[in-house]
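> tool_call: predict_assembly(chains=two)
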Amino acid sequence: QKEVEQNSGPLSVPEGAIASLNCTYSDRGSQSFFWYRQYSGKSPELIMFIYSNGDKEDGRFTAQLNKASQYVSLLIRDSQPSDSATYLCAAPGLQGAQKLVFGQGTRLTINP
Amino acid sequence: EPEVTQTPSHQVTQMGQEVILRCVPISNHLYFYWYRQILGQKVEFLVSFYNNEISEKSEIFDDQFSVERPDGSNFTLKIRSTKLEDSAMYFCASSGGTLLGYGYTFGSGTRLTVV
């Protein structure tokens, strides 16, 4: 059974600082990872996905993947109060499968 | 921007009753999914649907659950005899292609409350 683990937080970061969110996964064969943002009572919203080792940047967001350490992270630069949400890490259930296995999410609060 | 639409946004039902949750996926998408999230818990996969048939289902998706794409636009989840533990947010999602290239777009969800 594939596991995706996240620290549930809460993580509190001052406005303008860098927020760092981490995720580990159990299946060494996992090829791709997804970061979703979920505001309270709302549906998950895709922020970005990554499938190559290294960094992938999209605006203020950077995803980092280290397959050797089975670790994926999301950095949010210049954090804004509107970034306050729960961030979900997810990976495909099996190679080639269409389902996603989600972590429990990290609750992030940006303090003005 | 295209959206996945779910109705109703909130449904209250009595234990043992049947409910149908409705979804309209993005029009050119090919893969459809149902997930659920019990309050305070992880988002959990229920079922995936492709080419008019179930492609994968979880152990949660037992005989009480069924999915249907009755026409070219709607995608429904039916729970035949609801239990208290079925109370959750149910999310429909769709994807234009494989996970690797696309990820999913989730609908806004239906909050199901079983009393």
